[in-house]
Design a protein that fits this description.
The complex is a heterotrimer of chains A (about 140), B (about 120) and C (about 500). Chain B is mainly alpha-helical and about 120 residues long. Chain B contains five helices and no strands. The radius of gyration of chain B is 20 Å and the shape is elongated. With about 500 residues, chain C is mostly helical. Chain C has a two-stranded antiparallel ribbon. In chain C, helix 8 runs parallel beside helix 11. The chains are: A mainly alpha (about 140), B mainly alpha (about 120), C mainly alpha (about 500).
């Protein structure tokens, strides 16, 4: 894609904003529409756009497949770990109220961490799916 | 009669899409087209759920002092989960199609049956 | 210390699902087959211990309810364990443990070295899904877990060595997704009518509106969707290919558990949520199920007789056995439900033993076609003993678990004054005799072909689990207390206040 100067410049301009928007959707999920699923997909779309314009080689340098695969597991573990934290705090599984002395603050923290885990897994999964399909050009 | 049909237009759309999708899955021999049909079929169910959550005169379910009536957010949350399931199914299905194409050289159902019959 | 144990006991319903769930990403992170196997096996053992404790507690102290995240039902997701699903949990997790013990050698032979840890990741995820379906008390949650188990089993089946595994997995994916979506439509209609997803709450609200059309439509969608997942005739087309081309360990695990869990959900929806009166008096569900079940018994057994691949033969036999279970459900009586649950348990043991034995044979001769079985009776005597024991159980010969199933099924049929069913059950068992005999004949009465004189037993790590499963078929034929007592208690619970 060396000749598509317009595409390259526009996507370079867009990618930071896509990522920023993803983070907004991620962390605004407590107050309004948003959350990990949507944010994860938006975040991954930045990488996929980069991969489409600048080639699979380059995006693999930015997001090494081995790391991305591990992030899939890490996100799920973060989710499950928060659930277990509720358990060890004396509540039921996934009970965030016991994470802090103040139940409301606990709920706030809990859903934040959970959504971050979801976002991580979704973004990593989407990037992995892109890698797997784009990499099979034999 | 017409009024009854128009009042429930969301169900008619859902049922129409459901039938289109289901027919595509059953009638098409191309595996990718089957997956497209499957997606339409699933999406029709998503629409059924989401339209179910609408409360007449209700706003988006974000707490605010200015509004009293909110739409029901639970179907949306349920469908968010179902959409993720749908994405996973599509990805896995397309992954299988790619592998099938690599090992059989075709993704037409009748040709696949022939190839399987020979071995 | 006792406080700690008390705390642990209170959280068992959640731990049942989330211990395997946490093990799945750990398997992915492990990156090596050995380590991933240790993690998966530990999680499966923990799940079995949990299920055993839950079975004990529900049997002696009654139903356990667990509120996920501390949110009270009907708003929060509730996990409910009673004797019905405790029996299913015990079956699923115990089979998973034994099959995982069988796995290392089998997987090393059948799966590409680079993706063996992914195999264990998928396997334990499939276990998570199946346990979740059984344990949850929330209708939508059933769908989510159904898809977790289904998606992982599509991937597991596609790992089979032959390219046919890919088309089989794709076919299963299409059919399974249609089934799950039908189920989703049904649950949506119920939610639309009642505004709740909690099973107990649904049960309380449905009688008031049971004459409305959406509820009848919901029942139809849910039954068809689950029948697809359970491979009830005529929706069984995905099953033979899937079982025949999956890796041996996957065939053993899925054949013994996946369709059984769907049948359990069918039981739960028919009897607990819709209620027997609605399903059988308002709608003629029992006749639909009865006819399809009888056709399944004969069509499955007939097709099994003509198969040349033994794994395919066993798959068709599964369709016939699912027919027996559905037949028992369709009798809609306490005796019928007990018979269904007992056969779910016993059939799980039979098919796990038989498919594990197929894994042993594939490990040594690289094929499961019946013409290659010639002379194996002398070369792999222990594996063959396991096949014969489980085969006898499949026929329902006295002193095996299969006999107990047939006994309760026949009693339930007699109790419903359907004596002609007894004749049909006996006739279809004779068909089973034909295909089991074909196996025995090939194994014991033919000489091994030239060039295969040095074949011996499979490694002990595969043989011992196979023999254990076959032994359980005999054990539960002699000591029937566990499945029978649990099933009878479960039948009483499912029919509570009905009929």
């Amino acid at each position: 894609m060396r000749h598509h100067r317009v595409l390259r410049i526009i996507s370079k301009l867009l990618i930071p904003f896509i990522m920023l928007f993803a983070l907004y959707v991620q962390f605004h999920g407590d107050f309004g529409p948003g959350g990990g699923f949507q944010a994860g997909v938006i975040f991954a779309s930045a990488f996929i756009l980069y991969g489409l314009i600048f080639g699979l080689e380059n995006v693999r340098k930015v997001a090494p497949p081995a790391v991305v695969t591990r992030l899939i597991a890490a996100g799920v573990l973060l989710y499950a770990g928060t659930g277990y934290a509720g358990l060890f705090g004396g509540g039921n599984f996934l009970d965030y109220s016991v994470l802090r002395a103040d139940p409301v603050a606990g709920q706030h923290l809990g859903i934040m961490v959970i959504e971050f885990g979801v976002g991580t897994t979704v973004a990593a999964t989407m990037i992995t799916i892109f890698f797997l399909f784009a990499g099979r050009d034999r | 009669m017409l009024q009854v049909i128009l009042d429930h237009y969301n169900y008619w759309i859902a049922i129409f899409l459901m039938m289109v999708g289901f027919y595509t899955v059953v009638a098409r021999g191309n595996l990718v087209k089957k997956l497209v049909g499957l997606n339409i079929f699933q999406t029709s169910v998503f629409l059924l759920y989401i339209s179910m959550g609408k409360v007449t005169g209700g706003t988006a379910p974000i707490l605010d002092d200015r509004f009293q009536v909110y739409s029901n957010p639970i179907p949306h949350v349920l469908i968010l989960t179902a959409i993720v399931v749908g994405v996973a199914t599509t990805a896995l299905g397309l992954g299988l199609v790619v592998r099938i194409r690599e090992s059989y050289g075709t993704i037409e159902e009748d040709e696949l049956d022939l190839a399987d019959g020979e071995t | 210390m006792s406080g700690l144990i008390g705390d642990l006991l209170a959280h068992l319903p959640a731990l049942q699902v989330v211990v395997p769930l946490a093990a799945a990403p750990l398997c992915l992170l492990a990156g090596r087959a050995g380590l991933a196997w240790i993690i998966a096996f530990t999680a499966a053992v923990a799940a079995t211990a949990t299920a055993a404790a839950l079975a004990y507690l529900t049997f002696h102290n009654g139903t356990i309810s667990y509120h996920m995240g501390g949110w009270a039902p009907p708003w929060g997701i509730e996990y409910v364990v009673d004797t019905a699903n405790a029996l299913i949990l015990l079956l699923v997790s115990a089979i998973a443990t034994v099959v995982l013990a069988f796995c290392p050698a089998s997987v090393a032979r059948e799966i590409r070295p680079g993706s063996q840890h992914l195999f264990y990741c998928m396997f334990i995820l499939c276990l998570t899904g199946l346990l979740g379906i059984a344990v949850t008390g929330d209708a939508f949650n059933v769908f989510v877990f159904l898809e977790i188990s289904s998606l992982s089993s599509y991937a597991l089946i596609a790992m089979g060595g032959h390219r046919k595994a890919l088309t089989a997995a794709f076919q299963y994916l299409i059919m399974g997704t249609i089934g799950a979506t039908f189920f989703l439509i049904g649950v949506g209609l119920l939610y639309m009518m009642t505004g709740t997803l909690n099973m107990a709450d649904l049960q309380a609200r449905i009688p008031a509106i049971q004459d409305s059309r959406p509820v009848a439509a919901a029942m139809a969608f849910i039954t068809v969707g689950l029948a697809l997942k359970a491979a009830l005739f005529p929706l069984h087309l995905w099953l033979p290919n899937a079982y025949a081309s999956a890796p041996s360990a996957v065939s053993a695990f899925i054949a013994a558990t996946a369709t059984k869990v769907s049948l359990y959900v069918l039981l739960r929806f028919t009897f607990t949520i819709f209620g027997a009166n609605f399903a059988f008096l308002n709608l003629p569900l029992h006749w639909v199920l009865l006819v399809l079940a009888v056709i399944a018994m004969f069509a499955g057994s007939f097709s099994a007789i003509f198969q040349r691949d033994v794994k395919r033969m066993l798959a068709y036999s599964s369709i016939a056995q699912i027919g027996y279970i559905t037949l028992a459900i369709s009798l809609a009586s306490s005796a019928g439900i007990s018979a269904a649950l007992i056969h779910i348990f016993n059939h799980g043991l039979m098919k796990a033993a038989l498919f594990c034995a197929m894994g042993c044979i594939f490990y040594r001769i690289g094929s499961t076609r019946i013409e290659h079985f010639a002379g194996l009776g002398r070369q792999m005597p222990w594996t063959m003993t396991a096949i014969v024991a489980a085969g006898l159980s499949l026929l329902g010969v006295p002193l095996t678990a299969g006999f107990i199933s047939k006994w309760y099924l026949v009693q339930a049929a007699l109790q419903a004054d359907l004596w002609w069913l007894v004749i049909l059950i006996a006739a279809s068992s004779l068909l089973a005799l034909v295909y089991v005999w074909r196996l025995v004949e090939a194994m014991y009465f033919k000489a091994p072909p030239a060039g295969r004189e040095d074949v011996g037993e499979a490694p002990l790590s595969m043989l011992l689990p196979t023999l254990l499963l076959a032994g359980l078929n005999i054990y539960f034929g002699l000591d029937t207390r566990l499945p029978v007592a649990m099933a009878e208690s479960a039948a009483a619970l499912l029919l509570r206040g009905q009929m």
